[in-house]
Amino acid sequence: MNPIRQHGRVLTASLVGTAVEFYDFYIYATAAALVIGPLFFPTESPTAQTLLAFMSFGLAFFARPVGAVVFGHFGDRIGRKSTLVASLLLMGTSTLLIAFLPTYAMAGWIAPALLCLLRFGQGFGLGGEWGGAALLAVENAPRGWEARFGSAPQLGAPVGFFFANGLFLLLGLGLSDQDFVSWGWRVPFLLSAVLVGVGLWVRLRIGETPSFKAELAKAPPAQVPISRLLRDHTPAVLAGIAGVVACFAVFYLATTFALSFATTKLGYAKQEFLAVQLGANVFFALGILLAGWWADKASVQRVLGTGAALTAVIGVVFGSGLGSGSLPIVFATLAGSLFVMGLAYGPLGAWLPTLFPVAVRYTGISLAFNIGGIIGGALSPFAAAWAGTQGGTAYVGLFLTLAGAMTLAGVKFAPRLRD
């Protein structure tokens, strides 16, 4: 096959697949901020409902490392392609079934129990998704283009976010609040079936990566990749975990927490604030594109370290900017935060694979990415909501400062790979 056409297919498969996965994940994040609490959790306190909704949101992050180990095992033993297809199917099925769940008013405690089960399935599937998509891109990249190819699956994040929030915005504009709460919130979960079909079609048309095929020709795969990984590469796993924290913290504070805070505390209509977030999302994509180009010209370590340092700076002003009540200031806060996130997120697809040899690379980058997601993503909305009630909005961004410092340390102290 023509190399240009082959590269185009690889980049499309990396981008489309992760866009589908992140669409699935983000529609739950948006629903958690808008309707999950009142519909699925019984309490008289709106604050408690919000916290319970965010806890169900965070549950998937704890499923992701489990998925990383399972899918990483097969990704390192049988190949990237088939493992990616399986992860997409699991994620998509779990998302689709959420559309058919009864609410607490219909089924009592069965409703939140089923919701949490499917939420676990979402996280389990995504645990194997990102690592495979990143390797599909980077292990097929021409020399000197690794970071730009590695940014392709990263672009799936703003693309998935655009479709998820855009659809919720259209539903909010076209439906009354009563209809949206009654049935409208289910529509994005139903439409995920179409997107999963597109993702599967694209991924089934690509082949295995050259790096994996060369590794198989050299030596049989590790019997238990996770054991070899933890025995020989634990410092790299720890560095990778720290390197991921900043981007997750920025994203979920600037999206899930910000949406909930703005619609409940600041009094913005959900349609208005979803539009603000969609505009800020453009800066996220620009940050990723700049990071991929810059990392190939300089180094992934330099760009990721810059993103981490700027995350720490953003944390100082994030809470005050979000709580200002001025829409232009709120927009500037979100746009700046997501642009910085692009600098911290864009290089990860190329940086994490440099920490691990091919034989355990799928397991290694998946485990690091998803454990870092627990620290940065699952804890950030919950911690910010708690901090806001304790010390006001000025304290909300302090989590970002800590996350930026952790990622900077991970980049600085990451061991050099000796394979």
Automatic annotation (TrEMBL):
Signal peptide start and end residues: none
Q: How does the UniProt record describe the way this protein sits in the membrane?
A: Multi-pass membrane protein
Q: Which InterPro entries did the record assign?
A: MFS_dom (IPR020846), MFS_sugar_transport-like (IPR005828), MFS_trans_sf (IPR036259)
Q: Name one GO molecular function term.
A: transmembrane transporter activity
Q: Which UniProt keywords apply?
A: Cell membrane, Membrane, Transmembrane, Transmembrane helix, Transport
Cellular component GO terms, alphabetically?
plasma membrane
Chief location category: membrane
Q: Does the keyword Transmembrane helix apply?
A: yes
Residues that span the membrane, as ranges: 53-75, 95-118, 155-175, 187-204, 236-262, 274-295, 302-323, 329-352, 364-388, 394-414
- The organism's superkingdom is given as Bacteria
- Matching PANTHER family: INNER MEMBRANE METABOLITE TRANSPORT PROTEIN YHJE, SHIKIMATE TRANSPORTER
Q: What is this protein called?
A: MFS family permease
Provenance organism? Novosphingobium hassiacum
